[in-house]
Amino acid sequence: MTGYVDIIHDVLIIGGGHAGLSAALTTYRALLKTVVFDTNQPRNLWNTEIHLTPTWDSKSPSDNRNAAREEIAKTGFVQFVDRAVTSADILDDGLFRVLDATDGLASAKMAAGLADDGHRFTDKFTIYTNANPVLAAELHSLVSAHGIKVDDRAILRLRADEEKEGVSIDFVDKTSSFERFLVHRPSTWNTSPLVKQLGLRMTPMGDIETSMPFCQTSVAGVFAAGDCASMMKIIPQAVSMGAYAGCGIARELPRRITGNACV
């Protein structure tokens, strides 16, 4: 699809992972002509086994996606385009236009939750906030009663300590501490330019903000499902969200055509 072409589909799905495939299967059931743009670079590309998915447990994620694509393609309602979408915008008539590649944890509650999980396995547990006094104060009020320590010293570096079989933490003030293991939940962000182009709101965790149950984003007519819109980045969650997003699309599209608002 080079340039501004006149091919119009009922539904555009960007991403052919488990959520996108689930959404496509759902829109097909609603008899909606759908196109799926897919770079074949899913987040779990390097994973060798699926888990938590009935009949596919311990099997290859890529085999699962390929089987699903073959099944969906046979419906005649879904077209797959193996190229990345490089831009997207909303036209004056409310339609969405996309061009493909051929065209030019800083959360106290999250940290406290991780600490609570880890504290079940050890009596000694410390949360390092790395010179963030506001976060440290909020965490202290949440976890101090449970015997969990909060350390706000600025971290200089981490060193693998093979002799002690753990990790040494060196601080800017030239002190250090030792831990048997560390848990880190880094901040994430969506690398797709479409988020900014469409003006989608994001969550503090770096995911696309959606409303439940149908995964509607902050922009009318745009739905997001799977890893890009969920803290739980696992296949069952993606499949579930994809199905809900597909239902939301099938529910909204006739109303966009007739002008009757969803209730």
TrEMBL record:
GO molecular function list: oxidoreductase activity
Alphabetized SUPFAM superfamilies for the sequence: FAD/NAD(P)-binding domain
FAD-dependent oxidoreductase 2 FAD-binding domain ranges (all copies): 10-44
Pfam families: FAD_binding_2 (PF00890), Pyr_redox_2 (PF07992)
Keywords: Flavoprotein, Oxidoreductase
GO biological process assignments: cellular response to toxic substance
InterPro entries membership: FAD-dep_OxRdtase_2_FAD-bd, FAD/NAD-bd_sf, FAD/NAD-binding_dom, Ferredoxin-NADP_redctase_2
Keyword Flavoprotein: yes
Record family assignment: Belongs to the class-II pyridine nucleotide-disulfide oxidoreductase family.
Protein name stated in the entry: FAD/NAD(P)-binding domain-containing protein
Species name: Cytospora paraplurivora
